Amino acid sequence: MRVLGAVPILRDMMLATLVFLISFVVVGQLDAVNHENLQAGLLHLHGLEAVYVLMYLISCAGLGACFASLYRLNHYVSRATYDPRFDSTYWSALILGVIAGVFISELLYEVLFLLDESESAKSVAASTVVNMGKPTLALLGGFSANMVYKVLQRIVDTIESLFKGDQQAVFEAQRTAELAKLRRMEDDVSTDLAQQLGEVEQAFDNDPDAARELLRARIEQLLAKR
Description:
Layout: H1 8-28, H2 35-40, H3 48-78, H4 87-106, H5 109-112, H6 117-120, H7 124-143, H8 145-206, H9 208-224
Helix pairs in contact: 1-3, 3-4, 3-7, 4-7, 7-8, 8-9
């Protein structure tokens, strides 16, 4: 196995790539792996047909993930900056790539690439996207799990914004109600204060000393309400 290199993780990653490549070639030759079954999706297939289609997509995603990991490894090894402490990150990237490839090729395929027959007939390029969309998406998803993460995050943000919009409307309604309540309280205080000042004014005309006592009492009453 030394022919594959002196770095253990590099040899293991090459073996994993060969496994996915052999699986891609062998499973792709099965009758169950065809355009109709790929277009139908796993939810419309049963038994071995669903298993074979899933294995084919996993092989595509695994090839993309292995390609990305091998490229990173080759970059570090060729520059003598490889650090075995980060070996687990390559395997985690491989697993994430396989998951991302299957996820985007099955669950997000119709959202991203599925075209109507009328539109797909307009150009050879569109027809090619429809025919080879899922394997290509699985390969791309395996190569860049971060891309799939961003797609999912964008969907989550979009859905979350809908609920945030509702919460914002509720908050604005509560704020408007509180402002209206404060205005009513301000009007009540102004009316009450005007009445009390009128009483003090009348008291000054009759008895200034009594008016001063009344004014002092009204001030203490207002301070007590704070």
